[in-house]
Amino acid sequence: MCGVTGFWQPHGGARDTLLAQAQAMSARLSHRGPDDSGVWCDEAAGIALAQRRLSILDLSPAGHQPMHSTDGRHVIVFNGEIYNHLELRERLRTEHAAPAWRGHSDTETLLACFVAWGVERTLQASAGMFAFALWDRQQRALILARDRMGEKPLYYGWQGDTLLFGSELKALKAHAAFQADIDRGALALLLRHDCIPAPHAIYRGVFKLRPGHLLRMPLDAPREAQPVPYWRYNEAVIAGLDAPLIATDSAATDALEAQLGASVGAQMLSDVPLGAFLSGGIDSSTIVALMQARSDRPIKTFTIGFSENGYDEAAHAKAVARHLGTEHTELYVHPADALAVIPRLPAIFCEPFGDSSQIPTFLISQLTRRAVTVALSGDGGDELFGGYNRYLVARTTWEKAQRLPPLARRAAAGALRAVAPAAWDQWFERLKPLLPKRWRLATPGDKAQKLADVLTLSSGQAFFLNLASQWQDPASIVLGAQEPPTLLTDPGAWPHAGSLAPWMMAMDAQTYLPDDILVKVDRAAMANSLETRVPMLDHRVVELAWRVPLQQKIRDGQGKWLLRQVLYRHVPRELVERPKMGFGIPLDSWLRGPLRDWAEALLDEGRLHQEGYFQPAAIRQKWKEHLSGRRNWQHQLWTVLMFQAWLEENRRASA
To answer: How far is CA 612 from CA 477, 480, 484, 603, 606, in A?
Structure first.
C-alpha cells in the first residue's frame, strides 16, 4: 500500500523545480507510505511522479518506485496490490519470453505485462486493488487507472495549465498551482449522501477517477481526454442474471466457499505481519474463518467495544474468535477515546466526510496497526448478498405499501412520525422477548422515521434515493448550489437488475460502497499506515455473486442467506445470529452531551451567516429539535459539522 502523486506541465519545466515540487506533494502522503519514497521527472515533457511506500511485498530495494519497465518505455507509481501477480508471471513465461526479474513485487509484474499485452488487457487480466499513474515515454502519454470496485482512491484535475493527481487531496494542495475553490454543488452532494460521490470532489476543477476506469492523456491533446471503463459493474450484473447458478443449496454453498476461499488465500500473501478485523458479524466472521482454515498458526484478530447498549459487538467477536482459535485482541473504548479522534478527522479525511462510523474505523485501525501491517476486512457482503435491511423492506414493506391508497400511506407516515425515536426504542426493548428475530432491530426509532419518510413515495427508485439521502433537498440548504447529477439520478446509467431489491444492491455497490465505505476504510487505515484488503470485492467473487439467484441471498426474511451457509460450516449459528447492528457510535446522545459545546460553536447562527455556505435557519431548526429529543437528526447534523470542522482546519492550515 502506498501513496502516489505527481503533476504534468505539457510545456516542460526545469528539473530541480519539478523534483522539488513533486517531493513537496509526496511529503503530504507520508502516512500512506512511511517506509520509502521516490521521485522521478522528465523535464522536457514536464512530467513528475512521486510515491510514498508502505512495503508489503518485496521489502528489498527492487520494489522501489517510481519503477521503470525493462525496455525503458514505461515509468509507474502504483498504490495497491495485484493478488494474482504470480499467475500473471507464469502466463508471461508461457506466452512470451519473461524478463529477467529484478525482484518479486507486483509492480514489476504489471510493468512486464504492459510491455507484453498493453495496459487495458493487463488490467482486465489483473485481480486486485490499485490506483496508478503511468507515463508512456514512447507515446508521450499519461495514463491514470483505478481498480474495478474503487478500493484505492485517485484524484486528478487541471489547475491552470498543470494537471495534478494523487491518492489524496492534500497532495494536490501542496502544488503551487492549486486553487482551493469550494464547489457548492459538491457540498450539496455531501449533505445528501454523507460523502461526495465520484467523479465529483469538494474543489472546483478536481475529480475522482471512477472505479473500473482509465484515463489516457496524450501530449498533443491532454485536456480533451475522457475516462473510459475497462470493466463495467452493470455488465457483471447482466452477465450473472443471464447465466444464473443452477445448483442445490449445498452445491451453491460449495461454489461460494471455493471462490471466496481462493480470494482470501490470495490476499493473505504478504511479507509483513497480517491479521483481520473481527466484529463477530456474518461478513467479518466468514473472512476470519476462511483465513484460519488456511493457516497453520492462529490468525491475529482485532475488535473494539463500547459500553453503550446497542453499539457493543466485542462480546460476539470474542466468542467467534474463541471458537476459531484466533489470537484475539479487543479494546473497550471510552467516550473520551472516541471524542479525542474528532479533532483529527478533518486532516484524516482531506475531503469533508460525514459517515460517523469513521471514528470506530479509525480506532480499530489504530489498534490493529500495533501488531500487524495488513488487515483483511469483511466489507462488501451486504451489497453482494442482500444484507442491508432496506433490501428486505423493498421486498416486504414497500411492495405491500404500494397496494394501499395514498391517503392511507400518508396517515401511516404521520402515525410513525408522531412518536419520538426514543419512545420507539423503549417500546421495542420492552417487547424484544416477544418479537421474532427479524423484528429485533437495532435503533428502531430511527428506522421508524425513515419508514415514515418513504411510505408516500411513488416509485422504487424514489424510495431508494430517499433512503440514500440525509438531507432530502440539499440544494435549498447550500447557498448558491445546483446539485450535480450522479448515478442515482441518471436512469441511463442504471443497471437492468430485474426487481427492486437486486437493483438496489447493484446501485449500492456502485455508490455507497466505493464513495462511503471504502473511502472511510482507506483513509482511517492509511492514517495509521495500515493496509486493508477486502476479499469479497475480488471481481471474481462479485461476478459469482451475481450468478447466485435472489432466493439464495434473501430467504425467510433474512439477508445474506448463502453467505451464512458458508459461515455455518465453520462457526455455530448461535454465535453469529443476531440483529444487524452496523459499526457506529452513540452519536445522538453525544451531540446532546459531551459534544454539545463543540457542535454549538460550529453551528452558531452568526458564524453560518458570515461563512455564507448554508441557510442557517434550517440547520438551527434541526439542531434545536435534536437537542429537545423530539427527533434524531444526528446524521444530518454530523455532515454539516464535518464540513464546518474541515473548513476551520483548512483555514487554519492556510493561515
So the answer is: 11, 9, 20, 12, 10
| pLDDT at position 305 over 90 | no
| C-beta of residue 509 within 8 angstroms of C-beta of residue 546 | no
The C-alpha cell that represents 523 in the structure block: 483513509
Pull the grid cell for residue 344.
483529527
Alpha-carbon distance of 227 to 293, in angstroms, equals: 41
How far is Cα of residue 447 from the mean position of the Cα atoms in its chain?
23
H or E element, residue 2: strand 2-8
Q: Name every residue whose Cβ is closer than 8 Å to that of residue 430 and which is 6 or more positions away in sequence.
A: none
| 562 close to 385: Cβ distance less than 8 angstroms | yes
User: CB neighbours (10 Å) of residue 502?
Assistant: 23
User: H or E element: which one contains 553?
Assistant: none
Q: Please state, in angstroms and rounded to a whole number, the distance separating the CA atoms of residues 426 and 361.
A: 28
User: Which amino acid, residue 103?
Assistant: G
Q: For strand 47-53 and strand 2-8, is the pairing parallel, antiparallel, or unpaired? A: antiparallel
pTM score above 0.85:
yes
Interval 536-572: pLDDT, tens: 999 999 999 999 999 999 998 899 999 999 999 999 9
Residues noted as catalytic: 2
